[in-house]
Amino acid sequence: MVMAPLPQPWPHWPFLSLFLILFSCESNLHCRNGVEATQRVFLYPQSPKVSSIVSKAYRTGYHFQPPKNWINDPNGPMYYNGIYHEFYQYNPNGSVWGNIVWGHSVSTDLINWIRLEPAIEGTTPSDINGCWTGSATILTDDQPVIIYTGADTEKRQVQNIVLPKNRSDPYLREWSKPKNNPLIQPVGPGLNSNQFRDPTTGWIGPDGLWRIAVGSELNGYSAALLYKSKDFMQWTRVDHPLYSSNASNMWECPDFFAVLPGKNNGLDLSAAIPNGAKHVLKMSLDYCDKYMIGVYDLKRDMFVPDTILDDRRLWLRIDYGNYYASKSFFDSNKGRRIIWGWTNETDSTSDDVAKGWAGIHAIPRTIWLDGDGKRLLQWPVEEVESLRRNEVNHQGIELKKGDLFEIKGTDALQADVEIDFELTSIDAADPFDPSWLLDTEKHCREADASVHGGVGPFGLVVLASDNMDEHTTVHFRVYKSEQKYIVLLCSDLRRSSLRPGMHTPAYGGFFEYDLEKEKKISLRTLIDRSAVESFGGGGRACIMARVYPTATVDGATHMYAFNNGSSTVKVSQLKAWSMRRAQVNVKKG
Ligand code: DQQ
């Protein structure tokens, strides 16, 4: 075991002075992965600032991305006849948002992908200005269909469908547009024709009719508008939305699905839904993916959330980092629900132009409902484990306040790390202040890894340069609120790169945890060159982040477990693996 006790006291650790510098650098920028980032007007700089070596160093080794150009939202994921399909918003002409078509890749394992020609391009009046986000549905006669938003000749948002030209082609390479597109127009009182997009996967109601929901702005409020159809061709708007809220004014990329508390087997919304199942409505807004848990009232044909929170800052989040426009599907192959999300770059637009690419998708995650029915849990699909090699294994490492333990023997640039932190005592947990929930990023900045707590901070330092002047921390703190324990997961990027102009927030999310019963908190982090994707407390809080350390270019980075709380924590189990490079879109099919 290689244990490097920190110089005591902790403030002498190089972190601290750097953290102090950081406070003055923090900007008010929020995640730059929302529509503001995608739909702003880009100017191509004359002289790219990033050398080609940098571009190569930051390309991920096993996350989903095409060989070049811009991508954003995952579209229409599905499993059909033994093949997984991943479509995505793609600019074939450059590494900024624009000229959007549906890129298309196929896989048998969700990790290695074959790149195909774009599946949908703007060729008709109803999608000539862009083929935007949508979903796939497999109809009752095993017929796949995609419904997507087109920006029409007048730049109104309309809903179109495409069908595979040849269902016996295993890759469903070519898709045709029926003559009757657009199937749904943005008509009706109060509907904003520029805020009417991103149809969900269809589901069948008890009356045998298909339903979809479309993200909209209705009378200035956000709504998931409900449409019904007998044949998936002719659609009628239901007189009430599936759900709407005046706490926001537009929802992008709604997703509606059923989940069973405590069971990680997924449900197909069109199949019989077992008793005790709950429903989830996910929506993308404020540069984040948020969700509500509730029930689907079949009589009223409406989603009814268990809890209504007027302040949308308090809504639960799929991910507390850089993760947007996610879409889930039922994987009939393994009986699970899988969710995909888009992670934008957080370097500059000129860097993206110089790199020649921008945007990745997070590792597909299995998603299910916690046993108490209050929170979704997520975990990387098991297939990603096929990339693991060179296992490093440690048990029983005691981390006292200020200890730092180097995890050696893995490729710190491309790794998968799983740690169980056993809490020797939770008595010293600091009191919880509910106002922190309104701005978790602020709290992660203020209570960063250099600030001692009763229980925590403890966690990982990743992508650290030799002298620690670049590093990213992923760490927990434990708080006590009346009879409950509340855990904070932070991913602090403020020292992630010495390169100027990067967006480097300190992301954070809270979750309740029965620490009297559990006694330990797990952390899993997937490190992939410029991606740091973390799953805290068995997937109760997830944080996806992008980082651009200069140390990556030199190929020398380190990884540590640490504790800086008064209570000793024990690493009861630590496993780390180097990750092989996956075959992601290197071949054309
Ligand atoms: N991206 C698409 C829209 C969607 C947005 C356009 C979300 O359909 O609302 O590329 O990132």
TrEMBL record:
User: Keyword Secreted, does the record have it?
Assistant: yes
Ranked from the top, the taxonomy reads: Eukaryota, Viridiplantae, Streptophyta, Embryophyta, Tracheophyta
* Annotated Glycosyl hydrolase family 32 N-terminal domain residues: 63-380
- What species was this sequence derived from? Oryza meyeriana var. granulata
Q: Where is the Glycosyl hydrolase family 32 C-terminal domain?
A: 383-578
Name the GO terms of the biological process aspect.
carbohydrate metabolic process
SMART domains in the cross-refs: Glyco_32
E.C. number(s) listed in UniProt: 3.2.1.26
Protein name per the record? beta-fructofuranosidase
